[in-house]
Design brief:
12 helices; globular; binds flavin-adenine dinucleotide
Length: 476
């Protein structure tokens, strides 16, 4: 799991002709790349970030998740928007909460994700945490929330729980134990099936002739290069994909988006200490009508210190072990714009601040009910940029852009304000797109009718067999 992914050389890249180029390796891109590679297509994956082995340490977190202007982008109000620039994208650093796919939302936009959501769930190790993985702090918060009248429940996690052992630190900065699923696992499988991964390749624009995509331009090691393929999938995330589309002539990309703002509310527990193996987002509640969710969210020591310092709580800088923490994350209204260089111009509105106040009060109530004192909140953050290339606006229900043979498959295509953990939805979208592309390949022109062809069972069986072969390969 932690082996470096094999990379092919530039010479091979230059010579080869590809069926498909996938740009970016988050849950959206990794899924399309992997599902197309195991269907025998020649896939080139271009990833801006590095692909060094997962070390899971602070240095990796700082260089791949917290570099200002690259992986952390600040709004004019000082809200930090984070994204992982690495193989696996933001999922390398995510909290592995597998929120169910909101099927009805997509149905409103002509996208039926039922079969693909089921296929994704069947392939991924999704389940609520086993009781042995729920720590005393997580259980205390759950009890406090329930006493406060909330339907606080265990959440689905995308984790290989059999691999977990007491004492395993959660992979906030990448998981060395391979317990937390990340999109890097799908990239790994894609490469095992013959896909070519090129790291350090920042795609700048899509090349097209007479309205049809023919390849991409990318910069690697200071050199501008070109790669060609029959079809292109942009999966550079909610910020990356709209910027590439803009540079390719689709100027409307990157407007009226969401980023699901959040903050955490902290309290001091006098009679309880955080363990080394706390798991974030183990349980929580979604208050849909009020537009926000709350979950437990223990932080590792460095993050605790940084977030306390940011709000001037110097007395709490080293009170990591005694801090109970709840995340409040809400559904912000669509708005704002990206600049051509990736600046995020979106402000929290009066409506946002009203939800935030409500969320803070409710989290405070839960913390008090759980026995915490000295309650304060941290500054705003966001980690789900999306809706920048919406279905029904800049891509159609098949994720096709106005440029023929160019598709988008990541958080950008989500068509409405969101407020949910998106990774499982993105895997489902990736599976649907792969199915769609594969169905149309022999005729040259994918059709919606082709989507009605073999789905779940047949494809799933092939995929399971392939996954077994990959596991066998790994064992040797
Ligand atoms: C700390 C944190 C915790 C989170 N917790 C959860 C959680 O518990 N559950 C959940 O569902 N979601 C969670 N998320 C959100 C989730 O990780 C993201 O929403 C998801 O990864 C987005 O997937 P994506 O495919 O849209 O893009 P990303 O995962 O952002 O991937 C985009 C990829 O494109 C690459 N890229 C960008 N620009 C270019 C370019 N020009 N050329 C080439 N490559 C490029 C990037 O390096 C990256 O690999 C969390 C996020 C963070 C940061």
């Amino acid at each position: 799991m932690t082996q470096p992914i094999q990379q092919n050389t530039m010479t091979e890249i230059d010579r080869a002709g590809y069926d498909l180029i996938v740009v970016g390796t988050g849950p959206g891109g990794a899924t399309v790349a992997r599902d197309m590679a195991l269907r025998g297509k020649k896939v080139l994956i271009l990833e801006w970030g590095p692909g060094a082995p997962i070390r899971g340490n602070v240095a990796q977190g700082l260089t791949e998740l917290m570099v200002p202007g690259r992986s952390i982008l600040f709004t004019p109000q000082g809200l930090g928007l984070v994204r992982g620039i690495t193989t696996g994208g933001s999922s390398l650093f995510y909290y592995a909460c597998a929120w169910p796919v909101p099927l009805e939302l997509f149905r409103r936009h002509g996208v039926d994700l039922t079969a693909d959501a089921a296929a994704a769930r069947a392939e991924l190790p999704i389940a609520p945490l086993a009781d042995r993985m729920m720590t005393p702090m997580a259980l205390r918060l759950m009890a406090g929330a329930r006493d406060a009248g909330l339907d606080w429940r265990k959440l689905d996690k995308n984790m290989v729980q059999d691999r977990w052992k007491p004492g395993h630190a959660f992979g906030y900065f990448g998981d060395v134990h391979g317990v937390k699923w990340s999109a890097r696992m799908f990239v790994d499988e894609a490469v095992a099936y013959g896909a070519v991964l090129l790291n350090g390749a920042q795609v700048t624009r899509v090349l097209s002739e007479r309205g049809c995509a023919t390849g991409v331009e990318f910069v690697k090691g200071g050199q501008t290069r070109i790669a060609s393929a029959e079809r292109i999938v942009l999966a550079a995330g909610g910020i990356g994909s709209p910027l590439i589309l803009r540079a390719s002539g689709i100027r409307e990309a990157g407007h009226d988006f969401f980023f699901d703002p959040l903050f955490t509310v902290c309290g001091t527990m006098k009679d309880l200490r955080l363990q080394d193996d706390e798991i974030p987002m183990s349980a929580g509640v979604h208050l849909e009508d009020e537009g926000y969710m709350m979950t437990d969210l223990p932080f590792p020591p460095l993050m605790h210190t940084l977030f306390s310092a940011q709000v001037g709580r110097l007395d709490k800088l080293f009170a990591y072990r005694s801090t109970a923490r709840i995340m409040v994350k809400w559904k912000d209204a669509l708005g704002g714009r990206l600049t051509d260089r990736g600046g995020v111009r979106k402000r929290l509105t009066a409506a946002d601040k009203k939800i935030a106040r409500h969320g803070f009060e409710n989290a405070r109530r839960v913390l008090r009910s759980a026995g915490a004192t000295d309650i304060y909140r941290t500054w705003y953050l966001a980690a789900h940029p999306g809706g920048t290339v919406k279905i029904g606006h800049l891509v159609d229900a098949d994720l096709k852009s106005p440029i023929d043979k160019l598709y988008v498959c990541d958080c950008s295509v989500i068509p409405e304000a969101w407020g949910l953990p998106p990774s499982l939805t993105l895997v489902a979208l990736g599976k649907r797109l792969a199915r769609y592309l594969a169905a149309g390949w022999s005729t040259g022109v994918p059709t919606v009718a082709a989507l009605a062809g073999p789905t779940g069972a047949e494809v799933l069986q092939t995929q399971r067999q392939s996954a077994e072969r990959v596991s066998a390969l790994r064992r040797h």
